[in-house]
Design a protein that fits this description.
By secondary structure, the protein is an alpha/beta fold. The protein contains twelve helices and eleven strands.
């Protein structure tokens, strides 16, 4: 594109992804931004150093490479500013530390990403923050849980592993009536399928490790805030010395260019597999928000523009004592599906789900939960692989 400013406001998502985040003519016409490695940045004189009269001051405060990624994410999120952090968990913990202090009360959704719960139950509690978990389907009823010292409400939709949907607009409206900050882990949907700030959320959190990267080779996170909450987020990140590396930023920016195309494939393939699983006698339930049978489907249909490639299913097992054996047999028999954590890459993954940390939405009693990440492989091949897994489970 000759002029980044000429990108039409109504441009399609893939057109935007191809052009946001870097103006080639700001750097000699090169299509991709330079990877600027930096710690020290030189000043021309003492006055410039004292008054900080130049854009870049030190490596932790940004480089042209990290700025390019932040600008792209702001364009996708509609945010006032974005920070880059070394991991998805850091993308949760930094805003929590930015907006919570000793004596505060925080409401955390019970279907939250497990390492988030670990951070809350250890670091935040040790710092004197009161943590309370709430039902993901509480909606506007969350107002009954808000106390005089409640400062933050954390959401995640769909919920980790069991995919519960949340009524984000209702929760945000109730929280804002009491002056609470609303944060959301939006890693599953990405800004392409859901823009949290458009639905009342103040701070949007992503593990860019997942779909923005897309190739299972980077660990990184991002946090994007609206205008009211951006200054405090930025100040906290700078005070803590938290930043993303230029190499990872370049790779994430590169991944963004194809994210729309990849997500379209992930979505179609995952829905095809979910529908196929729903028709099997050896599957008790399929936990996928885009299925009409799923309890939170109407909220997903109302608010979201699409579904990514991650969902779960409950394997039908008659005896609770055989849950683990059946699940392990199925998973160990898979060959195309890798057995590994994370998701969002090109390869399919499958993992047994541990819900022992839940306090409200506890583990189902009709069978073990297995989470699938549907990659870019052909659906027919993935079905054959799962068929082998079901056969192995039936033999146990």
């Amino acid at each position: 594109m000759k002029n980044k400013a000429s990108l039409p406001a109504e441009a399609g998502v893939n057109t935007r992804l191809a052009h946001i985040g870097h103006d080639p003519f700001s750097y000699h016409g090169f299509v991709n931004p330079p990877v600027v490695h930096a710690s020290t940045v030189l000043f021309p004189d003492c006055q410039a150093m004292e008054k900080r009269e130049q854009k870049y001051l030190y490596g932790t405060r940004g480089t042209p490479t990290t700025d390019a990624l932040c600008e792209a994410l702001d364009a996708l999120e509609g945010s006032a500013g974005t920070i880059l952090v070394p991991s998805g968990l850091a993308a949760i913990s930094v805003p929590f530390l930015a907006y919570l202090s000793t004596g505060d009360h925080a409401l955390i959704v019970d279907s939250v990403y497990a390492p988030c719960r670990q951070f809350c139950d250890t670091v935040l509690k040790r710092l004197g923050v009161e943590i309370e978990y709430y039902d993901p389907e509480i909606g506007a009823g969350i107002e009954t849980l808000i106390k005089a010292n409640t400062k933050l409400v954390h959401t995640e939709a769909p919920g980790s592993n069991t995919m519960e949907m949340q009524d984000i607009p209702a929760i945000s409206e109730a929280a804002h009536r009491h002056g609470c900050v609303v944060t959301m882990d939006n890693t599953w949907a990405t800004p392409l399928f859901f823009r949290p700030l458009d639905f009342g959320v103040d701070v949007s959190i992503h593990a860019t490790t997942k779909y923005p990267s897309g190739h299972s080779d980077i660990v990184m996170g991002s946090v994007s805030a609206n205008a009211a909450h951006w200054p405090q987020l930025k100040e906290t990140a700078l005070s803590m010395g938290i930043c993303g590396s230029p190499d990872d930023s370049y790779q994430i920016l590169r991944g963004l260019r194809s994210m729309g195309v990849r997500l379209d494939h992930h979505q179609r393939s995952a829905l095809a597999i979910a529908q196929w699983l729903e028709g099997r006698d050896d599957v008790s339930r399929v936990l996928h928000p885009a299925l009409p049978s799923f309890p939170g489907h109407e909220i997903w249909k109302r608010d979201f523009k699409g579904a990514s490639g991650v969902f779960s299913f409950v394997l039908k097992v008659d005896e609770a004592g055989r849950f683990k054996a059946k699940a392990h047999a199925l998973l160990d028999a898979l060959s195309l599906f890798g057995l590994g954590y994370s998701w969002g890459g090109y390869e399919s993954l499958a993992v047994p789900v541990n819900l022992s940390d839940r306090t409200i939405r506890t583990a189902p009693t009709d069978g073990p939960v297995i989470r699938l990440q549907i990659g870019l492989e052909d659906v027919a091949d993935l079905k054959k692989d799962l068929e082998a897994g079901f056969a192995a489970a039936a033999a146990v």
